[in-house]
Amino acid sequence: MKQSYSTFFMFILLIVSLVVTVLGFAALGFTHPLPWVALVALVVIIYKSMQSIDSEYIDWVDQYNVGIKLIDGDHKKLVGLLNQVINAAHHYMGDDYVKSIIKELIDYTKYHFEREEELMKDNGYPDLVNHQKQHSVMVNQIEEFSSKMDNSGCEEKVCMEIYQYLRQWLLNHITHTDKELGKYLISKGVK
Fold it and tell me: 142-148, long-range: CB within 8 Å, 24+ apart, which pairs?
């Protein structure tokens, strides 16, 4: 996996900065600017590394709730799995782990769609066909990603491509299409 190189490079950069800082203070004292510059560089490296990763995680907020317990629970699980994908993309965790997380995400997505579509059918949702088409397009795309991952391995680029697509699709789908579904189901007495 390519992320092993980026993780290794970041580790080396942190170690070098730490060593330069400690040795700088030991050899030059607290009055010399070099160890202070190295200390600032170390803090900036750590901060930027954490900031770039943290900004990609999805934090569940109330605006994602559609008002249907079953659907909201599934969506929270999907968001959690997406966050595991981004974590795996940034930290080398082994091909088997990455593949298992993405497989679980794909399987749970299909499971969620089946449950959601069953709710729509049971309650006579008028936009069922369009909603199913959106689900079908998404399932086809994630299966294509899965195939791509099987062919090229678990490269960081592939993980990030999967993550970016699913993040954008899921949040857009939840905040628009599923919100409308939630309103309809609530009007039918579903909680």
Answer: 142/105, 142/106, 142/109, 142/166, 143/106, 145/102, 146/102, 146/103, 146/106
Let me know: does 157 contact 2? Beta carbons within 8 Å: yes
Euclidean distance between CA atoms 53 and 49, whole angstroms: 7
3-class DSSP string for 44-58: HHHHHHHHHHHCCCC
Q: In this structure, are residues 40 and 21 in contact, taking their beta carbons and an 8 Å threshold?
A: no
pTM recorded for the entire structure:
0.72
Class of the 62-187 domain?
A: mainly alpha
CA angle 134, 177, 57 (to 5 degrees): 90
Q: 81 with 101: CB under 8 angstroms?
A: yes
Domain map (residue ranges) of the chain: 3-54, 62-187
Show Cβ contacts of residue 110 under 8 Å, excluding neighbours closer than 6 positions.
139
Name the residue with tokens 């189901």: 185
The tens digit of pLDDT for each residue in 11-46 reads: 788 788 888 888 988 999 999 998 888 888 888 877
- For residues 95-104, one letter each, b for 16 or more C-beta atoms within 10 angstroms of the residue's C-beta and e for the rest, the string is eeebbebbee
* Structural contact between residues 119 and 68, judged by C-beta atoms closer than 8 angstroms: yes
